[in-house]
Design brief:
Blueprint (H helix, E strand, L loop, with lengths): L1 E2 L12 E6 L3 H11 L5 E7 L2 H11 L3 E4 L8 H10 L5 E6 L6 H8 L3 E4 L4 H12 L4 E2 L1 H13 L10 H11 L4 H8 L3 H15 L4 H10 L7
Helix pairs in contact: 1-5, 2-3, 3-7, 7-9, 7-10, 8-9
């Protein structure tokens, strides 16, 4: 995790303080470069895991957290839920490689304030940060269009059947995280993890972790890298 010292100049007191958490360094560099185009936005910290995201929020209290979904450790889904439960003032902007499937609706319901794809423009990213910092929601136009079309047509992916917590557990299972480690990271019993696992398998009609991983890959929630 990286943090930077606070600026001393009083003229910067209105600057929006932003943290970026993504397990790919090149993505963090790209977002930092995009935000550098706005003198009123200051990147104060970076991280590469869900645990580091929560640490940054506790210790640095950024105005906005730009957050990936699938990372080592707890997922962006779980981070968003925990922040919502703790009534954190930090606004979450989710960024992901894929905008299809259940993520946009589920994450907004879980407490995220914004949703973007990783191929968004710098202008869109900066506008999203400023919009959510002002207390409003921001959804990329293409994502909003897909959500509207899906609602109209009644289309649903199998993953829409999962709750936010079940999806968070599914993401860890799909990455090969052991049940005992999932229990430790989520502060629940291993028996509860197995209960979640059983529900996930039933809802998705899969029987093995390999089949679960393939489904998560197909819907863009995991990458093969």
């Amino acid at each position: 995790m990286q943090t930077w010292p606070e600026p001393n100049d009083r003229t910067t007191t209105m600057t929006l303080r932003v943290a970026i958490v993504d397990d790919h360094a090149i993505i963090r560099v790209g977002f930092r470069g995009m935000l550098a185009g706005d003198a009123g936005i200051d990147v104060i910290a970076e991280g590469e895991s869900g645990e580091q995201a929560l640490q940054i929020v506790r210790e640095s209290d950024p105005d906005v957290l730009i957050l990936d979904i699938s990372m080592p450790g707890i997922s962006g889904v779980e981070v968003t839920q925990r922040m919502a439960r703790s009534k954190s003032r930090t606004r979450v902007v989710i960024v992901t490689m894929h905008s299809d499937g259940p993520l946009p609706k589920l994450l907004m319901e879980a407490g995220a304030s914004g949703f973007l794809t990783k191929n968004c423009s710098g202008e869109t990213l900066r506008r999203a940060v400023r919009t959510v910092a002002a207390g409003q929601r921001f959804i990329d136009h293409d994502i909003a269009q897909r959500l509207a079309l899906a609602a109209t047509s009644g289309e649903q992916s199998p993953l829409d059947r999962l709750t936010a917590r079940e999806l968070g557990v599914a993401l860890m299972l799909g990455r090969g995280v052991r049940s005992v480690d999932i229990a430790e990271r989520l502060h629940i019993s291993e028996k509860t993890v197995h209960t979640y696992k059983s529900r996930i398998y039933d809802k998705l009609d899969v029987e093995t972790e390999s089949a679960l991983t393939l489904m998560l890959l197909r819907y863009g929630l995991l990458t093969e890298a």
